[in-house]
Each structure stands twice: as C-alpha cells, then as structure tokens.
Design brief:
Blueprint: H1 11-18, H2 21-30
C-alpha cells in the first residue's frame, strides 16, 4: 500500500488508507503542527 496514494479507486481503498498503521503514525507524529486539515476530492479525466 502506498503511503500517499494519488487516488483511491473505491471507498474500501480509501478506508484502508485512512486506517493504515503508517498513516496513523504520521498523524500521531505531526498533528501538533496543524490547526485543521482540509481534503479536496475531485475527478480528473485523461
């Protein structure tokens, strides 16, 4: 599983990314640096 996937192909893939131990460790180690997190989602076409 990539640490920072460029896209998630399904809700299940996104859920797996959000709960992955590496992702959770990143949040734990760096969340003190953020006031808030904003996530933008979009669809691109080739």
């Amino acid at each position: 599983m990539p640490l920072n996937p460029p896209e998630c192909e399904s809700v299940e893939a996104q859920d797996a990314y959000q709960s992955h131990p590496i992702h959770l460790a990143f949040i734990e180690n760096y969340q003190h640096l953020w006031k808030k997190v904003v996530v933008y989602d979009g669809i691109t076409t080739p």
